Amino acid sequence: MSSIPKNINAFTFFKEIFRSNFMFELIEERGEVFNLNLKPIGYFHFFANPSFVKHVMFDNKENYIKPPMFTKPFWDLVQEFGLPHTNDYKIWREDRTALKNYFDQASVKNFTAIFANNTQKWLAGLEEYMIQKKAINIGDFVSQLDIINFIDTLFGGARVDSSQIRKATDDFIDALTPDFETTLQFAGIPTLKGFRIKKIKTKIYTLADELIKQCLDSNNQNLIKILAEAYRHLNIDPKLIHKRLQGETIIFIIAGYPTTTTLSIWLLMYLSLYPKMADMISEEVIAICGNQSPTADHIEKLVFTRAAIQETLRMQPSVPFTSLQAIGDDAIGLHKIKKGDIIYIPIYHMQRLPQYWLNPAGFDPTRFLSPLSEQYKYIYMPFIAGPRACLGQHFAILETTVFIAMIAQRYRFSLTSISSLEIVKSIVNRLNKNVTMTVSLR
Ligand code: HEM
After folding, report:
1. Which of 28, 36, 137, 308 is most buried, judging by how many CB atoms fall within 10 Å of its CB?
2. What CATH number should be reported for the domain holding residue 27?
3. 322 lines ligand 1 (CB under 6 A)
4. 92 and 232 co-located in one domain
5. Which secondary structure element, helix H or strand E, spans residue 112, and what is its range?
């Protein structure tokens, strides 16, 4: 039975939004397209329909920008720094142009050996747990590897404490997740959350400054040096350069590591629950790579392994929703959109709607073995689509493929207890921090 409150305003919405069935119930009750007036934040259009999503992300994309709404506390704190997750398209375009080549599919392939080398060391570190049959806190372990991969490929191998990065990022994400206090902040009422965010901000900026310093001093190629060089060519005011580097460093920490860690953990979790799928990955990897570390050529041939990653991203997209804001009036058929309205796209829910997906709650990589039809482009979007799509998507898929392939060559991960599988819904779709697994030889 639906438990949707009769009058939904921003307060009730943010109280309910991370209750997993709330959005499903809303869609069931009101359809794939509906509106809500979420005062004091704004007028919202909910689109869980491919034609509507296509319209705002592709056909009339010039009319839609990133809204400050969900990220209001974040926005207030970082907007002055020209953070590229902004609706200031001049800044965003300059930064994205500078970094585009670094993240295209061909360049990212050059990271394969770094990922494989780090994964090898990481697996060696797990041997002791295997011998002693000790449980592993999987979130802690996987995040250590992701942070090292991330620092080695993007930040020139800087020496920073990965546990500090993890803690600061987790706190930051918790603080950014919209909730009841966020709504109060919109209404101009000071909250404890406001104070917490200020403290967290100091931590994350200190870490970013350390990374920037080391990157600028490093002989290795890295994101910061590329950006600094681009800013010089663009004659950006030197006083602004450091602020923009800080903004980019923070967006890469937040967008890059927790999302990939989330994907890897969910993947291990599904392979533990669906051992036949784990065996199929193992067979494929051994047939293609033997006992060697995967190379870029191998990776392309790991079709089933990639399908398992895509299916994990369908069931548990690391970013569960996205939003846009109209900068001018618009209409999709009879559906009118006014300047300033917010478009909310429930990625997680769209990817599980029974009208589009057979057996939506079942983990079935085979659905990705042949190309999806056109409409699925607009309902399967773990990296979103259009101009603001994830810059690191090839990076994330490659890193995760190397990770899972090297595990599948020798090891099996098993959940110690299914009861610990509580999902922490936030702006990143995380599993609870206490999930533990054991590792054994296949
Ligand atoms: C499984 C892993 C990942 C997933 C599912 C993911 C998903 C996403 C999504 C959905 C967005 C758009 C968010 C929004 O605007 O609402 C985004 C943006 C972004 N992601 Fe990722 N991401 C992943 C990994 C990465 C990695 C590894 C990097 C960097 C190495 C990265 C860098 C970025 C950046 C820079 C943006 C902002 C794009 C822009 O507005 O220009 N992401 N990501």
Report:
1. 308
2. 3.30.43.20
3. yes
4. yes
5. helix 112-131
